[in-house]
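Chapter summary example.
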Amino acid sequence: MDQDLEFQEYDAFVKHLETTYPLMFAGQYGGIECAAGWWPIIASLCASIQHHIDWKNRQSDVVPQVTVTQIKEKFGGLRFYYDGGDNEINGMVTMAAAWASHACEECGSQGVLRHGGWLKTLCNTHHNLRESRKKSGV
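The structure predicted for these 138 residues follows.
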């Protein structure tokens, strides 16, 4: 993928989240540090979290607003760090991390945790591409 296009898509995705969920992204969180294959998981998680908060807090504030502090890939897994929420939201975050552990970080297809340098969850296609790049020194 053209690197300029990749950055434009990243900026559009981040702006979409910040615009759609302004309370969730009100603080400084440093962006999203994972590839596009996991973006649908993150978007679904954010939608579920905010829907839960809005639904539970219709009558009174019983669930503290979630504010994202960091979203990233670490050791081949999705990490979603936040303040606020409740046990249901903790479960949603756990489920999203489990979903990402079986999805290619690059494209979202079925993936597995790959070793060989950095740990990454990748499909066969992106794993083979990564191995080819390592062999060619790119």
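To summarize the output: The first strand starts at residue 32 and ends at 33.
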